[in-house]
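Hello,

Following up on my earlier ticket. Below are the two sequence lines again, exactly as submitted.
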Amino acid sequence: MLKTDINKNQTLSSSFRLEAERQGNYIKMFVSGIIGISDYTCEEITLVSHSGRVNVKGKNMRISIFESNTVELCGKITGVEFVYGKN
Amino acid sequence: MEKISLFLFGYRNIYLDSEYVSKAMSLLLKNSISAYWENNALFLIRERDFEKLKGCFSGNIQYTYSECKGIYGYLKGIDNKPGLCAGIILSLILMIFSSMIVWDIRIEGNEKITDSTISSELSEQGLKVGTFWPFINRSRIETGLLDDFEGISWVNVNRRGSVAYISVKEKDIKNEDDEGKANQYKYSNIVAKSDCVIEEISVKRGRAMVAPGDTVKEGDILISGIVELNGEFAFCNAEGVVIGRCSDKVEVYVDRTYLKTTEKNSILSELNLKIFNLNINIFKKYRNLGSGYDIIKNRWVASAPNGVRFPICIDKSYVIESKTEEAVYTDSEIVALAAKRLRAKTAAKLSDSDLLSVKSDGRFEDNGYVMFSDLVFLCDVGVALEFNVE
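Thanks for your patience. The regenerated structure is below:
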């Protein structure tokens, strides 16, 4: 089930998890298990998790940070790249 | 949803340089602070997380912030506006208080007793415009009205919002008196209103003079109001139901020629806009109208999709000039029209009767068409006929 409304009492997974859904012309993506963000622009975002990095590319991307290490990305996402290793 | 909660519970805008963005995001993630990024240099956080953010950003990141926004932020600022607080509280008190007062009294159901008479009586009972609702004893007012007005048989005081509705039902005194007088001085028999054969007779009061199967003529007594009681004659108003089998003929005649009205054209002659009771004439055309014309008025009322009507309407008047000329029905048209009229006439005649059989026929005449039906039906043939006793 896609968790699109995150409430205070809702328990989210602390391990890495990626969910996405289409909303009109945009894609909304939830990524759990994020410990940091190493790079952020409207065209490219690099998320850091315990097991590696996730490079998300697109246009007009906006980010929202939630409690429990979850990040929501919304925009015209064109690519998601998984990079193993934190460096 | 998140943005709504920010608006309701307050939020702040945080501004920082683009070089600090990634570091700020990582710090927010590490400290479990929710943030909503609008662009590279601006993000929103909840008011309750602001202190926590100040703690984790201090010494690490240079940033600026706005004052608290949203409804919570606005309410926080009301501390310096005592007049606004007082005004809000006062208006709430006035709103609650004014709904507890009677602002209007509407009386319905009265025909002989006037509104002003009832209003003055209600005023004496303690119900008038300006009375406080909790002080009104409805059952005492209803009892008081019934005691003071002999002509009222039922009264109800109802409250809808701040309007008092007084529903009244008056006694039908005149009929009761008349019936009393009739019973006192006059008696009646049940007689036949037309020639028929008796099918069924049921007597409530009086003496039956006929039996099922008897043939009676118009005016024959069916139930007599003179009865024998303990060897003596007594009088009463005969009452009962007598069902008879009657026969009748219904006929219609349709003329072959008729006046046909042809519409020439329809012209908008007047346009009015009505808002509440104010009538605004937008357009009116004056012209000399000939002898044959119709005026059609059309009203459009503004209303909401759920059916609620607004006090705005548009009235349009159209003049339809017409011309009449003589036309002739064809054979099939005249027969169809005669049949339609005969059906209507038969239905009117048999409105309170049961039809047993019908036989219809028609013939063409020089200038038209005649159609007739022979009907056999069951109906109540009794009608009361009064007689005096000296």
